[in-house]
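Lab notebook page, bench 4
Experiment: in silico fold of construct C2
Operator: M.H.
Input chain length: 104 residues
Purpose: comparison with the prior construct
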Amino acid sequence: MMAVYWISFRIDARTVNGFSELERHDRLVKTVAMLSRMVWGDTTAFLAFESDTDIDSIAEECRAVISPDYDLFLISAMNGSVARICGNYRDPDIHDLMGNWRQI
């Protein structure tokens, strides 16, 4: 079943495991595009997309192409019913702002 999601992300400037910031950014964008039927990406570090892949699988695929020790992403269903966060985040307010989320 198709669902519409959004992902917001931050890629650290340092090179990690041989991948530059730009390479990790491009790998993340390509991963989302590969899992999607339609992608909107006219803003920096934010994509809206439609996919028939479940959010946990999307999150795991995205996690595999970033460095969670330095990078960060938040994926949510457009209706807010489910969300996943992965990576290095410092502000715990996200716990109160996002309902039905889980860290991966």
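Observations: Strands lie at 3-10, 38-43, 46-51, 72-77, 83-87, 101-103. The CA atoms of residues 21 and 66 lie 9 Å apart.
Next step: discuss at group meeting.
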